[in-house]
Amino acid sequence: MNVLYAIGEANPFIANGGLGEVAASFTRSIREKLINCRIVIPLYSDIPESMRSKFKYITNFLVPVGWRQQYCGIFEAHLSGAIYYFIDNEYYFKRNGLYGHPDDGERFAFFSRAVLEMIKFINYPPNIIHSNDWQTALIPVYRKLLYGQMKEYKNIKTVFTIHNLLYQGQFGKEFFSDVIGLNSWDLPVLEYNGHLNLIKGAIETADAVTTVSRSYAKEIMEPCYGNGLDEILRNNSCKIYGITNGMDTGRYDPETDESILKNYSANDISGKAANKAALQKLFHLPVDDSVPVIGMVTRMIDQKGLDLFREVIEDILCNKTQIIMLGTGDALNETFFLDIAKRYPVKMAIKVGFHPDIARKIYAGADMFLKPSKSEICGLSQMAALRYGTIPIVHETGGLKDTVTDCADGNGNGFTFKNYNSEEMLNAINRGLELYCDRAEWNNLIKRAMSCNNCWQNSADKYIRLYKKLTGQE
Question: What is the mean pLDDT of residues 413-420?
Fold first, then answer.
């Protein structure tokens, strides 16, 4: 089976966030299952020249963009057993930054159609084209409406993954005739509430639609989570699958992580105490193993539960505990928590900024990890916390609900609260602080957390089953 994975970014060449890490980790896991999987991304000028110099030129051709034809070059790179294709057009991609340009719609409409045109030239006939988010949402639309009856395309199946439903690729109706270039009778596929909506088009035309957690797949069919598309999603519920993202367990491994003071494992967790002391020292808090440390690595915005945290933080600090925060956010939250840290200098510390090495020190050194998000599509940090034996405290939503189960019955791996309110969150935190006093039970909980298997291989198995179902190979 051949899979072509189309996405807006991919490590190690270029990434704007977690999406680039998903592209690299997920496709590597697919290949490890002996499924051919190649990646295609735009040839951004921000890709380092040291990498670009090793690219191999394949060919060039013209791509229709509305009423005009645009140059497209194809380059190829081989890295760590993977094959990457790069779509070249300097007018669209020789710029600073990946996204956020006024003509992003045209840029990625070109990219989506170029991916399909490329298939004629690369000697890699895909069984599946797997596209991701609004930037590649036109691929299943074009495949079904323009290319479906052509010899090279009629047996290709399309999978579309929603990573973030907040960004849907919405444009005015003039975008249809000026850029997209479909027949006028195809307009209803993309039209929604008086605008064009590219994700709506992908949901309607893809052979399968996936989200990055099981619970989120159900939640987005409800008005409060569907961002206006819940009706469209309900109408297509028969082809929507929730497959929880995995994590790169090689990159996040307390046995080998060079960012932490002392390595440790589920079989020997003694090194965690040294990491806790080092973390307390790093944040200028009293070094005391008897004091439970609650860590947070988060965007400091209310959507991540900071509104709940503001309501009860002083109640939390009345307990025997320390709180360590890392992240950036809006002025309200940054100012509020910096002020709390000044008022409680021996109980709370905060560092504003993006510091991956410090994040890993928090995963390794904290006792608990608070992530009370109002909604969470999937989430990586709670899985990283589990991997390092730092017990998550989470709101039961999306990927948090799928990866963290309450330990009240003695079998779970964390502390959860069902309803989004500060009283329930405070109760979950207090249960964690109480259990921490029973060090034998707490150590058992750490070992259960570290034994959780959230690796990408599990997710890859589910996607491969889906691919085989779509292509009649199961």
Answer: 98
